[in-house]
Amino acid sequence: MNLILFNTAAEAEVIAANDPRAKHIREVLRLGVGDPIYVGVVDGVRGLGKIVESLPGGGVRLDVAWEKNPPITHPIRLLVGVPRPQTARRVLFDAACLGVMGLDFFQAEKGEPSYAKSKLWSTDEWRERLWQGAEQGFATQLPPVQHFKDLAAALEDRKSLAGGIEECFALDVYEGVDQLSALNTNTDTPTTLAIGAERGWSAKERDQLRAAGFQLASLGERVLRTESACQCGVSVLLAGWGRM
């Protein structure tokens, strides 16, 4: 990890011996008194800490120089048909790492309903994946996650997000005539990027997307896995904005 996240600034300055992060600092990073380490507060600021004391049992005390402003997120929302749990874990991690502003999952017509009942969603595991992605990305923000019963419900909720000023693209290797990179022309405009279920969009869903103002776009002629489409699609948008 490239920084260690905490819920509060106080937690970051005194890390108890029984905290797994203290063990990580000692045994994985192999840091000791005098060594620097980056820390952050979830959805807050980031700072450069210096280990100033080893506490009894293996805890550590840090002196942290906090930055004035938190790292930024990018104005991209991902709208994704609920994938199988192992795929969703990668999507969550990559989305937080890349810095998207939100993740909306919907039950797609061609999706598998049982995926939404996985323990990934019924426990805090989904949040842990966001947490790990943010640490990897040297950031502090965990993008909000929402779930919708179907695409229509997700599109209805989306109407109020950007006050009507928003770019909307749906990745579709079959009917997306234009490349996403060619369509993405408005620098820093809030953007929703939709990725269908692992079996693709239904005809009804394509009609719903078009009616909601989405442009069907492609990333090329290859059929990508859901996690690859999310990662590549966001990367194309960021590259177009000069954010990579």
Overview of this protein structure:
This protein is α/β, with parallel strands linked by helices and 244 residues long. The protein folds into two domains: 63 residues, Ribosomal Protein L25, Chain P (Beta Barrel); 167 residues, SPOUT methyltransferase, trefoil knot domain (Alpha/beta knot), CATH 3.40.1280. The chain has nine helices and twelve strands. Strands 8-7-6-11-9-12-10 form a seven-stranded parallel β-sheet. Strands 1-3-4-5-2 form a five-stranded mixed β-sheet. Strand 3 and strand 4 form a beta hairpin. Helix 3 packs parallel to helix 5. The longest helix is centred in the C-terminal third of the chain and has 15 residues.
Short description:
It catalyses: uridine(1498) in 16S rRNA + S-adenosyl-L-methionine = N(3)-methyluridine(1498) in 16S rRNA + S-adenosyl-L-homocysteine + H(+). Specifically methylates the N3 position of the uracil ring of uridine 1498 (m3U1498) in 16S rRNA. Acts on the fully assembled 30S ribosomal subunit. Helices cover 33% and strands 25% of the residues.
Question: Any chance you could write out the topology, listing elements then pairs?
Answer:
Layout: E1 4-6, H1 9-13, E2 14-15, H2 20-28, E3 36-41, E4 46-54, E5 60-66, E6 74-81, H3 85-98, E7 100-106, H4 119-122, H5 125-136, E8 145-148, H6 151-158, E9 167-171, E10 178-179, H7 180-183, E11 191-195, H8 203-211, E12 215-218, H9 226-240
Parallel strand pairs: 1-3, 6-7, 6-11, 7-8, 9-11, 9-12, 10-12
Antiparallel strand pairs: 2-5, 3-4, 4-5
